[in-house]
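TL;DR need structure tokens for one chain.
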Amino acid sequence: MGELGGLLWALAIGVPLLILAVWLDVKRRRRVEGEPARGPGEGNPGYLTQSEIDGLPAPGVRRPVLRTEPRGERLEIGLADPGFADVNGRVDLKDANVLVIDGTGVTMRELMIPIARHQPLVLVARGMDEDVLATLVANRKSLTMSLAAVITDLIPEVADLTGALPVSVADLRAGYLPAGHLGHATRWVTDGARTWIEPHPPLVGTT
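>> reply
TL;DR here they are.
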């Protein structure tokens, strides 16, 4: 029953992700090829424009401005896209899972299952296609997912702080993601330019 439940949950999350990925792919192709003519009475095309994604409200509840830096190790890593930020201008995830992607070229097909199963989730990579980022942001906003992505060359530092083992795009494509390859953070905070990682288990002396 546990495996069946996990599959149903993955499908429930994966279908919206796939739909948005298709919409954004259509958007990308029409941006390149041009908008096709529509007959009289035809409505707007069924895809999200970038302005519609940008117009989606940021998730979260507004909180007081931080007077001090969050606990944990600070790295000069900002959000891969400002659209991941909540209403406070940052991502603040507790008990976060961390997926470090080795290489570039990852697509939404490889990310659907990890996102469905391992939220709250931070995706860490050296590069990510802009259409993938747009799809992730759209899902973050429209489905209020506990999700963020960062692009950085500080892969070894992130892996060391979180215990993550980098996973190749080929492995993700094959569905290979052992739970032991995921990193973990008691708290992960990222704004436009910096990231604070509180390792898991908590730092000695913190409460």
